């Protein structure tokens, strides 16, 4: 017995000594990233191996407002942050399934309340400082801090109680949830792990929200993503360089990313982006309209154009069903009487020619929609949801049932009247910046004219449109679109719940206004905490069916994700989830150096 | 003699062009708002006399277009079946001069649809839209010019005839209006109006704005003419005989300004047509689906349309004779007024 305990003791001493020795020796060595460190647990990515070097240029619609993941809201910022930061568990944008990222493995306790995540060993931030569990602890402390106002904070709160994080050892963390959460490990996607060594001091001084402007010196900013900050030229471009400490390799053991530099050009307008791409100034292009896509496909010179199929964007039409306040003009109250009539909304839905929208607006590169989940969302779409064809007869029958009638003028034009004899007239607001949605509104206008409704289309600037819909609530009807950022339905929680700010037809309700909205709330909440995918799917399908039955949103169409790249860009595989072309940026490479040398 | 003939030449051209626009319902084959959703961005159909096999047909015909295999927007002619053109056919109903219901159209085809100027993104006939759009744009130009000249005449006459503080006040006001950035004024005005404006309201709003900002230049011109006219001997003589101000203005002074006004009108009409087009181009004009020349061109804002569909430029080309007609008429009117002093008149052609 003695010997064994002595043995054990000596072994422990020895091992700790060895550890100290190893630490002593590896420290100076590991500062040089080229040296292979046996203790690094790198992620090996399958797929085509590329060649290193070169710079890739892409266009951004706007200058990113910040590099700080704690305050980023705009698309451009999110796109840039996406290539500079990394998360614990990542959703593969191509398979739409989760994959290990900074955490090499995770375990969920049987009651669904405890998530144990194990970090990869030997990982480093882009400035060379090591990552350990304390960084993760710090990260979630900051995200949860109310004073920081992180936009994602709500996702960590369950029934008013926050998630709690505990460190087990330098590599292991336990996340304790107040309630089982149906989304499971997907919830870790998108939470950029922050460098404690850089941010802790500013955080304690309450200045963390001011950090991460584009003018931050490159040395003072670090992340775990494939690229790090190099240079920012205001109004022109943002240059990122390869993160030499990045934690992924290809199958041959080459450190990723392949590219030396990634350049974001700020090109404010979609047509200008196309021109830049055509002239060879940028290497890749995404978020293309169908019309621009066919322009590029037609003069196909040295680029590959890809139609990745339907994405997660859904476009819809809705009536103002918000509670008329005391100040609401009588005319508005009268109009809302029509809008509140379910049969009226069903009639409108039946009269809308979705196939024409797909053809006229998306040149066929899109899909007609009857529900919120697009065909691009393979796991969650409801196969049973009926797809009734357009039928003006059905629409007329429904309107007749609801007490509407028609008047025919001498020239054969008929006008729809409600039971009190008022002609049905209303206006549709649409974003003037989106030619697609304006076009949809024009198609609907013409469709409804055939039912005798007199409809006007009013183009509005995006911000004033959203203000009207969510704040002032002064409008009749609106055409709008949204894109889920994840395939999981919880990413659209703000649309579904009656208390949600994007519950567009009647946003931010204190109590659900109708029994069916209450039922959707119930189903959605239940779905959130259900344990298995099947349970969740059933509940979610039911919620979609209610939506279809009451038609508060009349779904129109979903565009395909269209992208293009020069033929010299290797591993170009656009996904239908954001970021459409940069999701595998670490694997992108340039085949021909000569192309780049000329630049 | 030579000058007079030229005027009538420009006038005849304008009358013919305006007649086609006024009777748009008759000359256009379809309703301008009617969407043919199967045929967006259809290129113009060519009118043939000789078919694919080389045979001559006395009656002109077109070939219907079908989508090129595997394409969403490339069409080719279906030469297997010629579609003969029919004249004086019955089709979509319209109101002649806005009053008389009618169905007769100059030309059309049976069972198929004919697009001589191609179709737009909704499959609407561009020719019909051009003709109906001309009604809106030209009427806006004419009414706008009318309002402007009326206001300009009154203001200019008062300022020039009475002089003194009235002259100072009105002319400073005119300078203020000349300096006003009218486009931004219009943006601001539009923001104050209710959300949905019916096409008719929008139309009158445009005319009101055009008239309100355009009166300053003719007012200054009229003032100049009145200033010089009121010192003429016959005017002084009339005043000496006890003529009243109103009589003098009406009988002796304003007739002097009539030729200036006519020339101005010929110049202002196309200017205001252009102004209306600018507004519609920017989406501030008459709302869809009512066509106007500006909204016809507004799709050219998109690069894809510029690059792919050349026939969307055609309306711009066909508008040229209208503008040439007005400017030619303006030039000739000027020449008739001052046959020997062309170009020396201050404030003449601009």
Oligomeric assembly: heterodimer
Order of helices and strands of chain B: HHEEEEEHHHHHHHHHH
**CA-CA gap between termini of chain A:** 73 Å
Count of alpha and pi helical runs of chain A: 16
Number of strands of chain A: 26
- What's the story with the biggest beta sheet of chain B? 3 strands, antiparallel
Strand content of chain B: 5-15%
Biggest beta sheet attributes of chain A:
8 strands, mixed
Structural class of chain A: alpha+beta
Give the proportion of residues in helices of chain A: 25-40%
| Helix-strand category of chain B | alpha+beta
What is the general shape of chain B?
elongated
Radius of gyration of chain B: 25 Å
Task: Summarize model confidence as the mean pLDDT of chain A.
Answer: 86
Taking all residues together, what is the mean pLDDT of chain B? 84
Strand arrangement in the largest pleated sheet of chain B:
1-2-3
Structure description:
The complex is a heterodimer of chains A (599) and B (350). Chain A is an alpha+beta fold and 599 residues long. Helix content of chain A is 31%, strand content 21%. In chain A, strands 15, 16, 17, 18, 21, 22, 23 and 24 form an eight-stranded mixed sheet that branches. In chain A, helix 8 (342-351) packs antiparallel against helix 10 (392-401) and helix 14 (515-529) packs antiparallel against helix 15 (533-550). Chain B has 350 residues and is an alpha+beta fold. Chain B is 57% helix and 13% strand. Chain B has twelve helices and five strands. Chain B has helices spanning 2-22, 24-27, 126-162, 164-179, 182-192, 199-214, 216-229, 233-240, 245-281, 293-298, 303-308, 314-337, and strands at residues 48-50, 56-67, 75-84, 86-96, 100-108. In chain B, a hairpin with a 3-residue loop joins strand 4 and strand 5. In chain B, helix 3 (126-162) packs antiparallel against helix 9. The longest helix of chain B is centred in the middle third of the chain and has 37 residues, at 126-162. Chains A and B meet through helix 5, helix 6, helix 9, helix 11 and strand 22 of A and helix 11 of B.
